[in-house]
Amino acid sequence: MELCLSLYWSELRDVTLSLEVLFRCVHPSPSCLTFNSSNMWTSVDVTGFMREEEVFPEFKLTHRIVYKRPTSHKISPLGSRDVLPSGVQIYQLVLSYMFQLNQTTEVRPEFPLMSDLLYENPYSGQLWMVFNCNKQYKCAGDSYSRQYTTKLDKDDYILRLQVCHSKLSELKKLTDMPLCLHSKLSSSLSLEVTASRYDLMSGPTVTKKTLRPGISTRFYLRSLPEDKLAKCGIDQGHFLSGHFTFSKCDKVKKKVAYELKYIVGPQKSARSPSVSTEKKLYTNDSLKEFKINSMRYGVLTSDELEDEYGDDISFLLAKLRMLSESEMCSYSNAEALAASIYAKIDLNEILAQLRIQEQFSHVPGREWTHQEWNFRLSYYCPDQRGSLR
């Protein structure tokens, strides 16, 4: 380290100088922290080397980072002025990106593959421009994206990037290059810091701590609650960026700050109202009953319901009832329909459901005749009298 001292320009005389140099050092590990919120916690080790230090850990997220894929791309040759002396044609690739801002904020587009590269970049002519939904020009920039932070209003925007090269094959490699869009949050988000992993659950937070020289101290960070992320309009797959510091002085914070990245994990999905199986069956039965009853009033015909309820007993009974009430009823058709209904009825199951089977005196090993079944069913179920012939 080199320390230089000089007189102020207006001082033309000799002065007596008293100087005190104080060395301080706080080193975090890691110095660049990436926090995956799905883990719900992370930690940072801090060590003071020179002297006993009082640190004030502060972890703030100030920007949102969203990655966008191009919506369209186009490769075309440039004009005659962009032909090399050797006759080599220069081509351009134009990529279009769409993004939306829900509020007025500062925006900084960046293409990580080619950022901070000028003469070292094999591609030439890197230039991007931003337009709003009315095709009004807003801002532009090149590979040094950190110099082009622009304040944009709430609106839909399109960004067009131009990259040039003499080979088409090289331009085709960039047709799916993502855009990294940095936007400033309306208010910064602070992460809570605890002194132990046990305190991560429900323990107190730490705002300051004294470090002994040469001894490492670990700080634990909690993940952000989902309600804070929802208020900022942050979705799954987004990144948050910021910095963390250990000094109380604002001037030191601006000079000594460490990079912080926060990966937003999966969020709760809105649960659709669950419908129980009983309610579904009740709804289906009600719909079936409505359709079958509609045949009596001529709204629907039996032919229209044949494919859906052709084997259903209630449909066949309603169809038989309509035949018996019709003046043009054919005895052979009614008899065939009644026989098909009888073949589908399980009398043992009916009596078991009515809980009357045990009241019948039944000889073991002997099956009841059709007349006995009809008599007992008509006796205990008068509304079914004559349904079995």
Commentary on this structure:
The chain has 389 residues and is an alpha+beta fold. Among the domains are: 31-64 and 187-263, Sandwich (Immunoglobulin-like); 70-177, no CATH class. The chain has ten helices and 18 strands. It has helices at residues 168-172, 199-202, 226-231, 250-255, 277-294, 302-309, 313-325, 331-344, 347-354, 370-380; strands spanning 26-29, 33-36, 41-48, 53-55, 58-68, 72-77, 91-101, 105-110, 124-132, 137-141, 150-152, 155-165, 179-190, 193-194, 209-211, 216-222, 239-245, 258-263. The strands form four sheets. Strands 2-18-17-5-13-8-11 form a seven-stranded mixed beta sheet, with no helix packed on it. Strand 9 (124-132) and strand 10 form a beta hairpin. The longest helix is centred in the C-terminal third of the chain and has 18 residues, at 277-294. It is elongated and about 135 Å long. The N and C termini lie far apart (112 Å). InterPro entries: TPPII_Ig-like-2. Residues 50-231 form the Tripeptidyl peptidase II second Ig-like domain. This is Tripeptidyl-peptidase 2.
